């Protein structure tokens, strides 16, 4: 307790200096961030290279970035004054030119529908993401303007309706039913909030959609929502109203930076499979680590043909966000973000998780072992795992 | 007469959000949850059932739906004795996707794998977008059987797993017979590595020892 207080005081004084000692901040946070007064929310922004160590630049940078994000939203989603039929003469839905705005519009809609399916399923046991945000998108907030602005909500609904129509024609059905696709029950389950309000998951959806549009190569891959979720959760619960108001924009850039850390985004790109940097290479690194640290555990995994794809695929791509409860994920991420080589530490943490289960693994058969690794026992403390990971790394 | 023990592997394939995980959870735990996470990597569950005097152990693999993860497909369906190709009856695209899976499975597993085409979410019948007749005809044309299920209302789920188990047993027994005939004529076929027939009494002993399940 005393030590926690000491750390808290030190972090506070570090953050109050004009020039933040980043090295020292990383050192302290490698134990876990103190979270009083929204400290974690600020510290993550620093550790994820969104806020520079020179505090005098913060205001300017934040203004610039938040403006930038506002423009992304306007250009890619809201599109004020955009009328669907206006550009028909030059460009139209059947335009085969790949440069056609319509062609990318349809591709975007596919991505959007995928994101929509996933974000609605984000952290279902945590009611937070279903709740309305205090800060919905400005343009969307004004209900009377709703007609002239586009929104993802409208676009998802329209895309699903269009898919209905098309499919019916394709199958030779003529009696088009005008009722919307979702049934009453389904509407209740996944109900949208009334116009002018937005749930937190809709913010997550908007961030991912913009991310996908700006990162054509990687676009959106299932699971990115799980990586974004905890960051947004921290930012949107900041006790300071100004930080909260800008949680969406700040979160976009921090997520973008996290994905940009060495090797993180590449885990989502299966194209990079079997190269030096993709997920396959990282799973191999993990098994190599297990082999050199505990040959008998490695042998049993080999013998049972228990491939890393069966469990470590999710561990690594999602930075373990699905293996622990949210508070534990958050304290684990303190440690991962504080490290200069996040991915490297992550792989060591994964190795530690396997080795901690060595007694069970050596005894168990294939199904018992896969059960442990796919449903990691929550009796193990993050602190123990991290400590073990560091020991392995030191060797 | 003491029965036999069989071990079979089943894989669930299909577009995201069609209800693969729900089908598995309904069958194995008799639970249904409207809101659950999207599956990112395949999950494995084992289930033991009795059919008549035989005991059957099912190793069920529930896979992830998204296109980008399909490259991982073969790791999970390799050596499968049965496959559920699941679509959502309100989503025509999810049905179209089934055709690709059928081709892929036929190419890599040949006729070793029993194919079941499963139209899930039958509780949403009024929003049906995939005509049942077309689905059934398609299933027939590729030598598969068509099933309708609702994981939500627990309709057709037990029947589905029971039926595939029976069909896998039949298939196994007939190929055993074939093998012994071939063997007699000196024409032994390829060794099958995924199915083991063990004497029931031996299995029970092993169970006691490991104390599993």
UniProtKB/TrEMBL annotation, chain A:
Organism in which the protein naturally occurs: Brachionus plicatilis (Marine rotifer)
Instruction: List the SMART domains hit by this protein, alphabetically.
Output: TBC
- Name of this chain's protein: TBC1 domain family member 13 isoform X1
Q: What Pfam families does the record point to? A: RabGAP-TBC
For this UniProt record, give its keywords in alphabetical order, as a comma-separated list.
Coiled coil, GTPase activation
- Which domain of life, per UniProt? Eukaryota
Q: Which residues form a coiled coil?
A: 1-28
Q: Tell me where in this chain the Rab-GAP TBC domain is found.
A: 34-340
A GO MF label: GTPase activator activity
Q: Which BP terms does GO give this entry?
A: intracellular protein transport
Automatic annotation (TrEMBL), chain B:
- List all Polar residues biased stretches: 180-195
**Which superkingdom, per the lineage?**
Eukaryota
- Membrane topology term: Lipid-anchor
Q: Where is this region: Disordered?
A: 180-213
Concerning CDD domains, the annotation shows: Rab21 (cd04123)
Give one Pfam hit by family name. Ras
Which controlled-vocabulary keywords does the entry list?
A: GTP-binding, Lipoprotein, Membrane, Nucleotide-binding, Prenylation, Protein transport, Transport
PROSITE patterns, per the entry: RAB (PS51419), RAS (PS51421), RHO (PS51420)
Q: Where in the cell is it found?
A: Endomembrane system
For molecular function, the Gene Ontology terms on record are: GTP binding; GTPase activity
GO annotations of cellular component type: endomembrane system
Gene Ontology biological process terms in this record: protein transport; Rab protein signal transduction
Assigned protein family: Belongs to the small GTPase superfamily. Rab family.
Under what name is this protein listed? Ras-related protein Rab-21
């Amino acid at each position: 307790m005393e030590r926690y207080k000491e750390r808290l005081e030190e972090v506070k004084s570090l953050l109050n200096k004009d020039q933040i000692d980043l090295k020292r901040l990383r050192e302290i946070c490698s134990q876990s961030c103190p979270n009083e007064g929204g400290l974690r929310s600020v510290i993550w922004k620093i550790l994820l290279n969104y806020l520079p160590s020179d505090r005098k630049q913060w205001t300017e940078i934040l203004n610039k970035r938040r403006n930038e994000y506002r423009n992304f939203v306007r250009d890619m989603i809201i599109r004020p004054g955009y009328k669907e039929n206006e550009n028909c003469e030059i460009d139209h839905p059947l335009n085969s030119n790949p440069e056609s705005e319509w062609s990318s519009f349809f591709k975007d809609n596919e991505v959007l529908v995928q994101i929509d399916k996933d974000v609605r399923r984000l952290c279902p046991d945590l009611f937070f993401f279903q709740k309305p945000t205090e800060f919905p998108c400005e343009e969307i907030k004004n209900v009377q303007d709703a007609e002239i602005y586009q929104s993802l909500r409208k676009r998802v609904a329209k895309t699903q309706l269009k898919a209905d129509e098309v499919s019916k024609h394709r199958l030779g059905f003529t009696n088009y039913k005008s009722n919307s696709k979702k049934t009453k029950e389904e509407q209740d389950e996944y109900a949208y909030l009334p116009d002018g309000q937005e749930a937190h998951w809709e913010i997550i959806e908007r961030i991912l959609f913009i991310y996908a549009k700006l990162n054509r190569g990687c676009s959106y891959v299932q699971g990115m929502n799980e990586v974004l979720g905890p960051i947004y959760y921290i930012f949107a619960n900041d006790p300071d109203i100004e930080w909260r108001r800008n949680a969406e924009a700040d979160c976009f850039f921090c997520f973008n930076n996290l994905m940009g850390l060495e090797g993180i985004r590449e885990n989502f790109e299966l194209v990079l499979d079997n190269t030096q940097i993709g997920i396959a290479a990282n799973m191999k690194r993990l098994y190599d680590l297990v082999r050199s640290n505990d040959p008998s555990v490695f042998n049993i995994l080999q013998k049972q043909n228990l491939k890393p794809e069966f469990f470590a695929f999710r561990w690594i791509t999602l930075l373990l966000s699905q293996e622990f409860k949210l508070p534990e994920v958050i304290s684990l991420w303190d440690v991962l973000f504080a490290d200069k080589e996040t991915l490297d530490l992550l792989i060591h943490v994964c190795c530690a998780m396997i080795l901690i289960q060595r007694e069970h693994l050596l005894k168990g058969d294939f199904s018992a072992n896969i059960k442990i690794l796919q449903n990691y026992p929550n009796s193990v403390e993050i602190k123990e795992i991290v400590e073990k990971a560091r020991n392995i790394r030191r060797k | 007469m003491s029965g036999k023990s069989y071990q079979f592997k089943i894989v669930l394939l299909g577009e995201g959000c069609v209800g693969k995980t729900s089908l598995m959870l309904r069958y194995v735990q008799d639970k249904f949850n409207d809101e659950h996470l999207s599956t990112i990597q395949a999950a494995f569950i084992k289930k033991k059932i009795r059919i008549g005097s035989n005991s059957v152990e099912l190793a069920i693999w529930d896979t992830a739906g998204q296109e980008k993860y399909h490259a991982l497909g073969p790791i999970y369906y390799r050596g499968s004795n049965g496959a559920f190709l699941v679509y959502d009856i309100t989503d025509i695209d999810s049905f179209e996707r089934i055709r690709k899976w059928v081709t892929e499975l036929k190419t890599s597993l040949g006729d070793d794998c029993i194919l079941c085409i499963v139209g899930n979410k039958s509780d949403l019948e009024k929003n049906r977008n995939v005509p049942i007749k077309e689905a059934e005809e398609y299933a027939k044309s590729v030598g598969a059987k068509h099933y309708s299920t609702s994981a939500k209302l627990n309709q057709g789920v037990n029947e589905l797993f029971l039926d595939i188990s029976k069909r896998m047993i039949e298939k196994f027994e007939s190929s055993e017979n074939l093998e012994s005939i071939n063997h007699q004529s000196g024409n032994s076929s390829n060794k099958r590595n995924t199915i083991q027939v063990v004497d029931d009494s031996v299995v029970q002993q092993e169970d006691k020892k490991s104390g599993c399940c």
